[in-house]
């Protein structure tokens, strides 16, 4: 019988915080910008420059810690992690080793096998490094220090995950918590959320962990899933052949669907950590902690519960809407204006989702105002415009955030409810289509659909469909 193997996975998740300025200086953290344009003597590691801690970084770290059920270290400090690398300007990184700001947390995840608690070992604050750009053409490497000194929190899980499904569930839950706290936008493709996967395999039932490898360069949930499956298979194959798994850092190549060894994994002592001499320890008072706790927003789990009680929308809709802070805010604000949560939910679930998919956009990229969606719902509900026109107007709102009232007025899109005008158009359509009239009289119900279509076409889609049907039946 073939041996059964268990995969053991722990994650290190780096999250770039949404502060306006860097962790130890006042340079901008904005993504993009010309190389080295968001820099100063502090974040480029000039001799004699001194770091000053950004208070907002501490507040975001505490907020994430509270939301992930961590204990907050009220007396914590920074340490220096020494290593030489061209994108690391000072030759050390300011991080936290001995007294991280948060520890011993946990979050609940839902998977196909039920609910499971994943432990969080610690969360610490640190600065990001710069970025190396390898120029194949000139055969050289260039360094951009714009990202150097951007504030990060590193969320280190316990090795509690056993499958790619559990990993993705944990990451999605974590990403939502951080987005709801507005501590980061967590865009994997822009690197504001980066995941390193520590993975080992062992025989099912074994107590001891196997040798682990760490995989980097994972910039989508799909890539993470593929990397886990690939690395699990690679390690099992080595064990089956009687070979050793080497503890090392590997780079995942998503195009080739395989990982490559980068370097053997160092231990903490190799970094010669010591307390950061240029920064005073941080003392988090009870009052400060309570103030942050009191300002914590409603997270997704509480939102779902409230939506069930407050709004009459299906469970599935509530799950999708609360799955993005942007959608949840849009839903709540629009519902507050027009008092029609069910209609708001329909517009978000059907048309908004369709346009997001067609334009390859994320809910975070939505730019229209809740006021405009509310106005559109009023126009459609009052019968001022019909459903075909409403969809057309919504596309304009989605693209250009237009005022629907103004747009409908300018383009003359109001529904025609003038019976006289409709009647004369329909009489003309009936006269032009004797075959369809004949079919209808011979019991072919579908024939009326063709006549309704022709009438709508003649009225440029602006007729009231109910009234068209009524007049047609009467005339036929």
Number of domains: 3
Oligomer: single chain
Q: What characteristic shape results from the CA principal axes?
A: elongated
What's the number of extended β-strand segments? 16
The fraction of residues assigned to DSSP E strands is 15-25%
Rg over alpha carbons? 30 Å
Question: Helix segment count?
Answer: 15
Largest sheet: 9 strands, mixed
Q: Between the first and last Cα atoms, what is the distance in angstroms? A: 77 Å
List low-confidence stretches.
none
Task: Indicate the percent of residues in helices.
Answer: 25-40%
Strand neighbour order, sheet with most strands:
2-6-7-10-1-11-12-13-14
Average pLDDT metric: 89
What would you call the structural class? alpha+beta
EC number: 6.3.5.-
Protein name: Aspartyl/glutamyl-tRNA(Asn/Gln) amidotransferase subunit B
Keywords: ATP-binding, Ligase, Nucleotide-binding, Protein biosynthesis, Transferase
Domain Asn/Gln amidotransferase: 329-476
